[in-house]
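Section 5: illustrative case.
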């Protein structure tokens, strides 16, 4: 290796080498490209380096060295995902690698690939879609974008352990195996003497919690030895002993089979965390029924601030529905086996009709876990909905009325299906005002899908425009009298001054009044904007800066559960600060503690919690935070300025610790 290359900053050399490895470039070509790129002017600019390296790789027009570049990764699962990435076309592969592994902005990726930002974005989307499809075909399970990005995060952690030294690429924590005497050591790579399968991928098969496996023909992986299998079996038995007991208990409580329970996503995530941390108490906390989870949440009456009550209700409803709706679907699937019993109803008087003992037992379990099961005797089907006495008793104490009503109303969605409304125009108008009252007491949080907003939009469109099957105009183009009467009722009195719904209806009423309440040429274009729910959003409570966007929110919850720094390894200092303040906002002191740099002066967990509680009293209200801005970097320390609407600023410093940024100073410092 040329000495002049080693004069370049080692961080840059490492990063460029990782980029070429990620693209699947062969070693001898990689060395040539590194020499060329790092020798040229402008090599200090990372985007320029990426651009030149990409051009040289593209000019080679060679197939990726799957086996060679994959050997450098210690974990079999990393090699598997690495191989899938290398199967992508070069542009899609490059867009994915630069965006997800190097945090390069889309406009810069476009520069690297000599294309437009929109085309670069399409390449990234294509890459992620193809990976998700490949993973689905291999494992048989559906993957989301967030789940894919988690797997990419773990792979990134492995990439970051690779060091570049004297032309040899190797894992930082390897154990080298010396060649036998008399044999030339021609291998570029070194391996751990014993590779143990890692269980860091959250993929489970019913009853087994097995990692997905990609064919040996694709990856050319060696066949495990008898000793390897014995070690893996012993580890699995050790892991599954306590988990089996907990899963058996959860299955019995839910009334589902072991396999059905194991296939629940939240159960699989709990097992992933347990596999990583081996914390039996934490597993016991996670493997609960949805109703048990709800009962464990804070009671809203113990929260003094009304806005905090609303935020707590949002958090509770969001987490509860993630569990409850999945179990609801499992119940509906299980009840399909008993639909034949509904056929007996035609032959028996309803007073004499009864279910089999197995069906009756399941129905009791469903009711006891906070659901209502309804038998549709006409169509011979079952349906399951959240509700009933058990749910109501728990939810009334945990959710403010708006969120309680939202969860309770889910069973009636959608209001409009296949062009037909469940409600008359008059009923729909009344429902709109009721929904607006509820929405005003909910949080406009983009990290959570509020189906009421969707239903509000559909009902408002129905009241004003009608549907193809239920129009608001007569065949002669005149507004129907019953519709006109509903509109006039909706805009009467002081309603326009109180309700956005009334003001919207009044606008269209006035426009039609100008044309004698007859449809006119511009009506279609005029009503096209009804689908914009920005008016409704503006009336809802707005989350403060500690509210997280969907991707950060997902990362926060995963990190909160696992404390695994790989979950946050791709975040910048401002994003880490947002997680930190979000945790402080909701008194999640344990997550705050793990986001703090583990330096000598960091207090114990107990002292940290006590200091954090005092900090909440002494510093500005976290919910009034307005801005987080990076002010400067010095000797590896990043300083952020955090501003509040009350006019005070505080400083927060972070440093890079291993593969992540961590909060450095504690307590926070007020700016003068």
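Designed sequence:
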């Amino acid at each position: 290796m040329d000495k002049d290359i080693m004069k370049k900053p080692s961080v840059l050399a490492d990063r460029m080498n990782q980029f070429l490895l990620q693209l699947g470039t062969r070693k001898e070509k990689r060395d040539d490209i590194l020499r060329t790129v790092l020798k040229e002017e402008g090599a200090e600019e990372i985007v320029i380096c990426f651009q030149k390296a990409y051009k040289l790789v593209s000019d080679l027009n060679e197939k990726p060295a799957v086996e060679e570049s994959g050997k450098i990764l210690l974990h079999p699962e990393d090699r598997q995902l690495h191989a899938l990435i290398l199967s992508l076309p070069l542009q899609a592969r490059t867009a994915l690698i630069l965006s997800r592994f190097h945090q390069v902005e889309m406009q810069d990726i476009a520069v690297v690939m000599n294309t437009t930002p929109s085309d670069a974005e399409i390449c990234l989307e294509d890459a992620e879609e193809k990976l998700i499809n490949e993973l689905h075909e291999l494992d048989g399970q559906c993957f989301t974008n967030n789940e894919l990005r988690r797997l990419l995060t773990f792979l990134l952690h492995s990439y970051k352990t690779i060091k570049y030294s004297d032309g040899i690429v190797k894992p930082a924590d390897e154990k080298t195996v010396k060649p036998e005497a008399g044999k030339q050591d021609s291998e570029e790579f070194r391996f751990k003497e014993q590779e143990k399968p890692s269980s860091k991928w959250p993929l489970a098969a019913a009853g087994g919690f097995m990692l997905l496996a990609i064919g040996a023909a694709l990856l050319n992986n060696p066949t495990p030895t008898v000793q390897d299998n014995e070690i893996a079996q012993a580890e699995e038995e050790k892991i599954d002993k306590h988990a089996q007991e907990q899963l058996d208990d959860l299955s019995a409580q839910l009334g589902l089979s072991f396999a059905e329970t194991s296939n629940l996503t939240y159960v699989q995530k709990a097992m992933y965390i347990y596999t990583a941390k081996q914390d039996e108490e934490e597993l016991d906390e996670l493997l609960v029924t949805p109703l048990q989870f709800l009962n464990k949440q804070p009671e809203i009456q113990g929260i003094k601030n009304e806005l905090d009550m609303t935020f707590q209700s949002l958090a509770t409803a969001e987490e509860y529905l993630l569990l409850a709706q999945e179990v609801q679907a499992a119940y509906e699937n299980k009840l399909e086996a008993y639909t034949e019993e509904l056929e007996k109803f035609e032959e028996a008087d309803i007073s004499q009709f009864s279910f089999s003992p197995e069906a009756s037992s399941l129905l009791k379990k469903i009711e006891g876990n906070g659901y209502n099961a309804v038998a549709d005797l006409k169509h011979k089907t079952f349906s399951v909905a959240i509700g009933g006495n058990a749910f109501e008793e728990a939810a009334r104490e945990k959710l403010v009325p708006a969120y309680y009503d939202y969860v309770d109303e889910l069973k009636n969605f959608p209001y409009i299906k296949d062009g037909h409304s469940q409600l008359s125009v008059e009923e729909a108008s009344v429902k709109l005002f009721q929904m607006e009252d509820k929405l005003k007491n909910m949080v406009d949080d983009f990290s959570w899908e509020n189906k009421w907003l969707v239903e509000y939009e559909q009902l408002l469109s129905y009241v004003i425009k009608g549907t193809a099957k239920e129009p608001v105009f007569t065949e002669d183009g005149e507004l129907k009298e019953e519709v006109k009467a509903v509109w006039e009722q909706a805009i009467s009195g002081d309603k326009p001054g109180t309700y956005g719904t009334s003001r919207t209806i009044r606008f269209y009423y006035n426009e039609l009044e100008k044309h004698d309440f007859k449809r006119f040429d511009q009506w279609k274009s005029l009503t096209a904007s009804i689908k914009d729910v920005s008016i409704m959003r503006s009336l809802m409570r707005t989350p403060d800066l500690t509210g997280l966007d969907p991707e950060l929110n997902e990362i926060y919850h995963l990190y909160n559960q696992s404390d695994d720094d790989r979950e946050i390894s791709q975040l910048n200092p401002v994003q880490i600060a947002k997680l930190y303040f979000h945790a402080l906002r909701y008194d999640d002191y344990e997550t705050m503690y793990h986001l703090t740099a583990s330096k000598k002066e960091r207090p114990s967990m107990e002292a940290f919690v006590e200091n954090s509680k005092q900090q909440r009293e002494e510093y500005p209200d976290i919910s009034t935070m307005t801005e987080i801005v990076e002010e400067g970097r010095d000797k590896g320390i990043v300083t952020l300025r955090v501003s509040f609407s009350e006019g005070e600023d505080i400083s927060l410093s972070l440093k890079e610790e291993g593969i992540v940024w961590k909060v450095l100073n504690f307590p926070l410092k007020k700016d003068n």
